[in-house]
Automatic annotation (TrEMBL):
<dbReference type="GO" id="GO:0016773">
    <property type="term" value="F:phosphotransferase activity, alcohol group as acceptor"/>
</dbReference>
<protein>
    <submittedName>
        <fullName>Kinase</fullName>
    </submittedName>
</protein>
<dbReference type="InterPro" id="IPR006748">
    <property type="entry name" value="NH2Glyco/OHUrea_AB-resist_kin"/>
</dbReference>
<dbReference type="Pfam" id="PF04655">
    <property type="entry name" value="APH_6_hur"/>
</dbReference>
<keyword id="KW-0808">Transferase</keyword>
<dbReference type="InterPro" id="IPR011009">
    <property type="entry name" value="Kinase-like_dom_sf"/>
</dbReference>
<dbReference type="GO" id="GO:0016301">
    <property type="term" value="F:kinase activity"/>
</dbReference>
<keyword id="KW-0418">Kinase</keyword>
<dbReference type="GO" id="GO:0019748">
    <property type="term" value="P:secondary metabolic process"/>
</dbReference>
Amino acid sequence: MATAPIEPPQRLVSSLGGDQDGPVRSWLEGLPTLVQQRLDAWELTLERVHAPGGRSSLVAFVRQQDGTPAALKLPVPGRASAQEGAALTVWDGWGAVRLLRSDDASGALLLERLRASVSLRSLPEAKALLEAAGTVRRLWVPPGEGHAFATLAGRTEEAAEALRSAGAAAPAAGPLVDEAVELRRTLPAASEERFLLHGAFRQGKVLAGERTPWLAIGPAPVVGERAYDLAGLVLDRFEDLVAGSGAAAAARRRVAKLADSLDVDRDRLRGWTLYRAVCAGIRESATGDRQRGELLLEFAAWL
């Protein structure tokens, strides 16, 4: 049983503290109690709460009754991580962290313990991209009959509406916004691929493990074509490309290299990357990080 006080990390509190949604605020306030309930129910011993942690979940390092290390995760209710457990069940440890137990009522997940401080971002860029490509390839499996995962068309429909509204407030980005919205309309309709995707894949989502060198964490699962997942990898460390010489050509080479290495159509990867870069750029600009938002839009223009 835990004897140390359970306190949500400041990053999580800061991320959700301004949320006016009643259920989210109530969840944050009741989080210490929720953690203790899972510790008691699953007979876990708390070692420490992971800090700084993430912005949409609490992760605590625990020991199971037999002394085996594990990680207890409680995600914010109602977010994309609600189906995380279902995706981890499908993968069953293949390319992703293994799910040990789950609780539908609280959304709690008990996961195998990985090395939280060691992600692919700790590697040189070329090596990191190679390992990331090998990891994400393992995750692309059929979702199973009668699955309840969101589809890529459905997931991006809401985002496209938000993009239109936000773009109206940024007229200089109008042509890029228009192209991104059109790509979102045409890309899902033109693909017959129906793979289970990570949905939020990037180098920071791949941690060092014990049973295999690298394993993905934190999926926001969605069913669709592989190019969507790979687009997140194209955008990873985009600041490094922006800072270098010949940045536009380097960005296009990255698209071509990743597409070819994973047998993904270059044009479709370019399209999804542009769409995701514009969405992220408009969002960042609207939430205060204007410089990063402008860099993302510049990156999109190079494509």
